[in-house]
């Protein structure tokens, strides 16, 4: 346990306000493309928990995730990362692999009391793990706790040993090493999670020479998630550049101030090119301002916002 805390601290998860607690273990397409929206509700008649299926072929490694069934994962540990964000570690058989590709997300759910017709109503929400997809026996979710967020409030109420049902993975962008010479990223708030998944994949692969430029927007310096880890990565990897901007800067803040502007994008991102790709993830206001949100069917939709004004085309931008 002490080793786990030291490792997280060194990787920069942040200053924890308390120690980790420890105990031992619809139409998906409509939900899958959502990185940071509201909770969604669907009806299911059978709320029974589905446990991990065994793979009969011994030549194949067992996979913890299942894209077609809800699988129960036990909360192993939790910690407060910032004033409104918590880190949750879920465990699974360490002899299995998680089965998560870069970049993919998971879908979580929990049941509400049956309605007047006896049907079970579920809150369903996608999250992107921030742990290494190759990690043995666990995956980590970084979740912002919203006062009115049904799913995030449910996560906040969990205790070690509690079970959360998960389905997935749901593939978003299939990242392959060196697929582009330069990847630009614009993230807001918890929209950093898919970016971190890709950043980690690039930086841990010595054969991947991709340059990364991240613009990360938040309300205040205290809202910047995993800043210590991001700063350590940028300091130790010359191919990673990060620019922070906040709406409410503190007196000693030296980064950007206010919403992301065209000037910030020009200075902080690779220019429009077939050799570059811009990734965007954040709340609706940021999405509309930067690139336009996804279409109603959750496809990429039309490119608008400042990226279009700067000359980027739809094939140069991916919206999480």
Automatic annotation (TrEMBL):
FAD binds at residues 125-127, 142, 144, 150-152, 193. Residues 68-176 form the FAD-binding FR-type domain. Its EC number is 1.6.2.2. The chain crosses the membrane at residues 26-44. It catalyses: 2 Fe(III)-[cytochrome b5] + NADH = 2 Fe(II)-[cytochrome b5] + NAD(+) + H(+). One of its GO terms (cellular component) is mitochondrion. SUPFAM superfamilies: Ferredoxin reductase-like, C-terminal NADP-linked domain, Riboflavin synthase domain-like. This is NADH-cytochrome b5 reductase. It comes from Daucus carota subsp. sativus (Carrot).
């Amino acid at each position: 346990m002490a080793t786990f805390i030291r490792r997280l601290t060194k990787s920069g998860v942040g200053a924890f306000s308390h120690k980790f607690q420890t105990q031992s273990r619809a139409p998906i397409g409509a939900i899958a493309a959502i990185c940071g929206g509201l909770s969604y509700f669907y009806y299911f008649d059978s709320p029974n928990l589905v446990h991990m299926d065994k793979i009969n072929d011994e030549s194949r490694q067992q996979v913890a995730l299942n894209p077609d069934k809800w699988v129960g994962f036990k909360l192993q540990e939790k910690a407060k990362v910032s004033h409104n964000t918590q880190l949750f570690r879920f465990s699974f058989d360490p002899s299995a692999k998680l089965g998560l590709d870069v970049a993919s997300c998971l879908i979580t759910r929990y049941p509400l009391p049956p309605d007047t017709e006896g049907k079970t109503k579920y809150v369903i929400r996608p999250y992107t793990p921030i742990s290494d997809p190759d990690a043995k026996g666990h995956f980590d979710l970084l979740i912002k706790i919203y006062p009115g967020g049904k799913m995030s409030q449910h996560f906040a109420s969990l205790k070690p040993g509690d079970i959360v049902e998960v389905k997935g993975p749901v593939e978003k962008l299939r990242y392959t090493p060196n697929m582009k010479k330069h990847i630009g990223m614009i993230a807001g708030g918890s929209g950093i999670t898919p970016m971190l998944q890709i950043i980690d994949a690039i930086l841990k692969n010595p054969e991947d020479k991709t340059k990364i430029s991240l613009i990360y927007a938040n309300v205040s310096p205290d809202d910047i998630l995993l800043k210590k880890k991001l700063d350590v990565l940028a300091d130790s990897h010359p191919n990673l550049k990060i620019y922070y901007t906040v709406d409410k800067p503190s007196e000693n803040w030296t980064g950007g101030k206010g919403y992301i502007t065209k000037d910030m994008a020009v200075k902080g991102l690779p220019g429009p090119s077939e050799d570059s790709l811009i990734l965007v993830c954040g709340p609706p206001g940021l999405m509309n301002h930067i690139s336009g949100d996804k279409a109603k069917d959750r496809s990429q939709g039309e490119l608008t916002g400042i990226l279009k004004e700067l000359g980027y085309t739809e094939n140069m931008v991916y919206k999480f």
